């Protein structure tokens, strides 16, 4: 049986006769972090910190001693570290969580290996080639790993590859088209991360991962729409505006469903920025600056007030 969540307890509280002491007992037993939970967290935190510093040390080692190292030493050290790390990741007696962390470190070392190879042989490849190869060669590990940090690394590589491809190769892509594509990529990833675990064959990803991906999608949409409204042709942002309207409507509904203040704050703030850009397109004189300032202050106040009201309502339902 899965561990009980706050949302489950809220539903049980509404449809049962549990008193406050019983609710508090369940919270202490199943919700609040215990000594063992903190020990597990600190153990994983220091493991991740140690692996991160190790990888950083490897990168700085090459950077500082680059001119004095033979090319075979450079490649040999990088490949050796990658092989050793990968072998540790598949060692069956290791803890599953630790194995996934080491696999993530190996995925980072793949990028280091490609960077070293490109510098030694001066392949002359575009930067997007480097990130594309990095993305392709860790795809299998990402699928097998089923780990949020590895997913985040993979998604960051995809975004970087698309951006650099547009900058270096597909220079006929407009700014609006590129950011529309990035918005769709991140929105699709977010929807997959939310929907796929519902069939119980995929791991439920942590909230911080979903929030980061959602924030990336919202940022791309906000930047593209604001830019298109102020400096571009309104017809060029029409498809993006339709996609964003649908995604934002679903996001607000989802935020209310799971009682998440993140979606109910990030999306309205994005809408405020977009509407503010529309006001500046209408006019950029001093009076419009004053009107826009009042609009932003009023909009932010309204969002914060509604969030506080919803938080009180949710707490009341839980109690």
TrEMBL record:
Pfam families xrefs: DUF2157
Keywords: Membrane, Transmembrane, Transmembrane helix
Domain annotation DUF2157: ranges: 40-145
Coiled coil: none
Segments traversing the membrane: 44-66, 102-121, 173-196, 208-230, 236-256, 263-282, 288-308
Keyword set includes Protein transport: no
Keyword Transmembrane helix carried by entry: yes
Top-rank lineage group of the source organism: Bacteria
The protein's name in its UniProt record: DUF2157 domain-containing protein
Organism field: Sphingobacterium hungaricum
